[in-house]
């Protein structure tokens, strides 16, 4: 298949994935999401509509939940970077997913899980939810927080080389599929690599084909003379006829 045909297939599959993820929502919101998933206002509307559908809070999961990906995540949380420090984990574009809280709950080593999102609505819903739930962590020193943050500016909050693991479930996908989001996706990837420790990893869960995503990651993760990265891919599995992948990006210093 030519690269052009491949991008068309990827694009139309992307539309199907968005439709499948938001199938309970109004058609005007679905069309807004198709083009504007890089916009804070779109997501504020999405999480507001989502929470008004039910009386009790329910986590919303893009693609799938923690159980489908725990075997990719938990093995990366088995060694401490410093004897006394918490392992710093970021869930970028966390939405109202239970992924971050599940990592906090299940990690045997002490972790600080920071779930960050551009939408203050999603962040407030999660803060209220965990306060009401009082989830108990496996390790009593672990911590969990929810922060409103634009992940294209991670360096405003996190210092260089301080984060052990970054998890991205559908967020860079959302930016890449938006009319004006590609520049933001490039920026977010670069910021992730800058805040990661040299021993750290970025895990991306995505439905994008390895042919396209590996090329994008390898190209964008480079900054002439400053930064490079090793990139790998594993299959997560199939859901509703779509194949999902886990991309692992590890920063490599260029001297
Ligand atoms: C496709 S949803 C995925 C949500 C969640 N990770 C999940 O698995 O359900 C994309 C999320 O990214 C957030 N987002 C979009 N642009 C962002 C940005 N620049 N910084 C932080 N979060 C962003 C949106 O608010 C939304 O919650």
TrEMBL record:
GO terms for cellular component: mitochondrion. It comes from Solea senegalensis. It is found in: Mitochondrion. Residues 86-203 form the Methyltransferase domain. This is Citrate synthase-lysine N-methyltransferase CSKMT, mitochondrial. Keywords: Methyltransferase, Mitochondrion, S-adenosyl-L-methionine, Transferase, Transit peptide. GO terms for biological process: methylation. Belongs to the methyltransferase superfamily. GO terms for molecular function: methyltransferase activity. It comes from the Eukaryota. Protein-lysine methyltransferase that selectively trimethylates citrate synthase (CS) in mitochondria. Seems to conduct trimethylation in a highly distributive manner rather than in a processive manner, and thus introduces a single methyl group per binding event.
């Amino acid at each position: 298949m030519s690269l052009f045909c491949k991008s068309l297939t990827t694009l139309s599959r992307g539309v199907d994935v968005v439709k499948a993820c938001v199938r309970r929502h109004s058609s005007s919101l679905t069309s807004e999401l198709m083009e504007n998933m890089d916009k804070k206002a779109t997501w504020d509307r999405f999480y507001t509509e989502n929470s008004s559908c039910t009386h009790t809070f329910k986590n919303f999961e893009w693609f799938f939940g923690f159980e489908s990906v725990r075997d990719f995540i938990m093995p990366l949380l088995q060694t401490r970077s410093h004897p006394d420090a918490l392992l710093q984990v970021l869930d970028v574009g966390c939405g109202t997913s239970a992924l971050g809280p599940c990592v906090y709950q299940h990690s045997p080593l002490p972790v600080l899980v920071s779930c960050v999102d551009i939408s203050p609505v999603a962040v407030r819903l999660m803060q209220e939810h965990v306060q009401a739930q009082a989830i108990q962590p496996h390790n009593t020193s672990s911590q969990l927080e929810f922060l409103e943050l634009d992940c294209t500016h991670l360096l405003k909050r996190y210092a260089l080389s301080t984060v052990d693991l970054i998890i991205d479930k559908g967020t860079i996908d959302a930016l890449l599929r938006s009319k004006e989001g590609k520049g933001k996706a490039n920026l977010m990837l670069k910021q992730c690599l800058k805040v990661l420790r040299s021993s750290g990893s970025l895990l991306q869960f995505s439905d994008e084909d390895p042919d396209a995503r590996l090329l994008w990651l390898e190209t964008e993760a480079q900054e002439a003379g400053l930064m490079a990265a090793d990139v790998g891919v594993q299959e997560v599995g199939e859901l509703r006829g779509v194949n999902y992948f886990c991309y692992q990006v590890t920063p490599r210093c260029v001297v």
